[in-house]
Amino acid sequence: MGNQRKPRRSGTAQESSTLSVDEIIQRYPGKWIFMHVQECESGWPTRGVVLAHSASQKRIHELVRDRIRDGTIPHPYCVFKAIRFGRTVGDLDKILAKPGIEKVDA
Predict the structure, then answer these.
(1) pLDDT confidence bin for 12, thresholds 50/70/90
(2) Structural domain includes residue 104
(3) Quick one: three-class SS letters along the chain?
(4) Is residue 12 assigned to a domain?
């Protein structure tokens, strides 16, 4: 019997706090993220709880598959690579807040 501890599987880490997608990108640059979505804006996830992260896309997809099979997948969830593709809503708000730029609501 003794001290039989299940080895930690690489790429898994449970976060307890809700983070913005920008915070996740800063904390896990270039990693694949499996996130339980907590908030969305215009249909896009903006905040969530990181359930796992890994350099391996395959590892994250295996983990998601396993969670689907055993019925522990959170809804909604999101898988993405933590890289910045362009400007965030916050970035655009800062640009629009500059003097001489008028924000027009659609």
Answers:
(1) low
(2) no
(3) CCCCCCCCCCCECCCCCCEEHHHHHHHCCCCEEEEEEEEEECCEEEEEEEEEEECCHHHHHHHHHHHHHCCCCCCCEEEEECCCCCCCHHHHHHHHCCCCCCCCCC
(4) no
Does 81 reside within a domain? Answer: yes
> Is pLDDT at 4 greater than 90 in this prediction?
no
CB distance 42 to 91 below 8 Å: no
Give the C-alpha separation, 85 to 35, whole Å: 18
* End-to-end alpha carbon distance in the chain: 66
Tokens found for residue 59: 């590892």
Q: Which domain holds residue 57?
A: 19-96
